[in-house]
Amino acid sequence: MRPFIADKASRLLQALHRVDWIGPLVVRVVFGYFWLETGIAKVHNLDGFTQRFVGWGVPYPAFSAGLSAWTELVGGLLIMLGLFTRLVCIPMLINMAVAVTLVVSANLMSLDDYVEADEIVYSLIFFWLLVSGPGKASLDTLVARMLGIRPQAGNAPVRRIGMRTVTD
Predict the structure, then answer these.
(1) Are 39 and 80 in contact (CB under 8 A)?
(2) pTM for this one?
(3) Which of 39, 87, 163, 168 could cross-link with 72 by S-S, CB 3.0 to 4.6 Å?
């Protein structure tokens, strides 16, 4: 019975490994679109967005609001495309750190409030993209191939030899 279960589990994992590029692609496209859309809305209503920054007491509100809005717009587009993904996650994380520090934290009273805050979840997704990269279906991967940049060992294909799993 044990070999049967191991064989079926191995086949299932191999099938999932063949399509493991879909997860990062879907997250990147949907998450990037979200930021592109919010960035466009803020850029189109920059005066109103600046007034929110004034109300929150953000230093240099006109500059900060413009920087934040354009960071979201350009960052969202680049994340959707999977272009400069890791690099663009850095200003997006800074944007979230500023939002949490200057705006959101005033309404957070407990650890539960922090982990349930949207900005914390967004930060975790940016962090994941920063560390893991955009995935195989991205312009970053295409550019890397064109430049002859080899993927790291963690991206090596997995194959089975007998009962062992080996990475190339």
Answers:
(1) no
(2) 0.81
(3) 39
